[in-house]
Amino acid sequence: MLTLGSLPDNKPDLELAFVSPGVASAASSEVSGVLTLTPEELLEGGVPDALVEGSLVLITGTVPFRLRGRITTVLDQLLERMSRDGSTGLVVRAEPGTRQTFPQAILDEAARRGIPLLVTTAEADAWEGVHEEIQCARLLAAERRSAQLASLVEELPVHLADPRAIQCILDWLVRVLDAQVLVSEPERVLAAAPATAAEHLAGVMIRQSVDTPGAQEASGPHTQLISISPSSGTVLAVARRTPFDKADLSVLRYAAKLLGLIHQATREYATASDANAAARSAAFQLLLDGEVTKARRVMANLAPGLLDVDAARIFVIETQPGRQEATIRRCTAVIGRHSLIVRDQQSDRRVLIVYPIAGGHDATNAVSDHLTRVVKGLGPSASLGGSGIYSMGHLADAMREALTAQKFASRQPDLVALSVHDSELVTLLPQPEALYWAQSLLKPLMRDPVQWDSVRETLPTALAFPYTVAARRLQLHRNTVTRRVARAGELLRMDFSVIAYRIAVALAMELVARHETALPSSPGSEPPRLKALLSAPPVKAWAEALLKPAGEDRRDLLTTAQTWLRFDTHVEPTARQLALSEVTVRSHLRALETYMNRDFSTLPGVSDLMFSLHAARGSSFASDCSAPDLCVMA
Given CB 3.0 to 4.6 Å as the disulfide criterion, which of 2, 311, 405, 420 pairs with 545? Predict the structure, then answer.
């Protein structure tokens, strides 16, 4: 785009030269066109009624300054009109070597009105087509500016509060202006493009203020500082090696306005988001305190009906420090409409989630699948723990279970533990060693393939149920079941009336059944002992989590359970040993069943009790029996 200062350089054939003072201030004025007049037209027709803003007025021919009175009056009127309509400058033709083109009175009047005066020694023919060239250049510049603004609008996000919005606008400015750009507040840089811009503009931000935009740096690059939010002191800073023209400044102003709107929207959204997060955190704490009604009132406007259920689960996600907000955003994207998601106030690594369950059950476990995928996406530093289903009034218990599950999950290969209570011990044992132990224990039964087939069919059910029930389930005669069990006990040198042996053999049978193909064992190596298998860290964590709620009861439930197991689940000798009534013993066991979510009338329930007591408390069972050391927990 041509300016008064660039016209002599761009059009040397016009032989233009400034003759009035104050040229530097007028050099950046844009030339919108050329209006050609002759002295005769001025003297006979007078000054034009209106001039186009930014036009350069050219008087061709020789101005008869000898007619001082008439021509001076007309030129005074012309200068007045040019000043009123915003003309760029006045050019007259002079013969080469002319010493003084304008009378002093005209020079003084032009200076007073701020109109630059120029002379040209070129013939009138040299000016032909100049006006049309300027108009074409202006049209191209307008089209370019329109395209730039259209592309700027395309950079706008759907939501102004999008955290990427400011960076997108800065990247656009870099492409359009080939400049270093940043947006900063007094204490921090919000965004920069390219990455080196913050370092490049550091000196500019220190030396310049918003009150002096457009100041030129002596070192080379031209800079612009534009306030986009005076209340917060947020500034758009731009620097480049070439000067900014009027079109560039116009683009910058539009971009600054958009950046101001985006910054304002971001701040307002952050304020609203903080208030929303504070309300949700308050509701979460009320739930943990058992204040369900108050929590529902807090959430009534934020998420109507979300907490109007009878039961819920709690999930805990732990990730790297500094990733808490990103984790909340990911969780909100997948389950935000159906859950209460908050940051843990005690740890900047944890995110806490309450997932209300209508009707008291989670039919599809979709939430577990969604959160598992979120944790996988966060990388190996993240882990997920989840509680079982709890009534809304007991979410403090759910929280304790979820936290314990998360700690347990951090030691698991998949980093996920959705309710430790639901974990199976058999999956927590070191598999190659556990299978080797099981095969070694059951080796006397496996020597004869025919015998092994019958034992494998009968023993797991016969160990778990009374023989009459087992026979009915297996569709065998009771005597057949009795005979097979007796033979198995003989070969293993075990008395299956001892609960510890029934449990150990049942575990071994399950391990073997889970592996169709035996894992290779080291020739001559000693098989591991069950006690060693139960000392594995995952088993210990599982056991501690399973027993922790019962350990917090004021009654000594775990001592009752240990004694009951040592007496092979008989209540009467247990009561005598502990000097308690049988009713009290049964009450302790029922309470422990509730805490552990296990049924002690089943072999799996008693197995989990025995294994957890041994792994967590070192309790010994069946140490006085004559069975092989492989199955002794002593």
Answer: 420
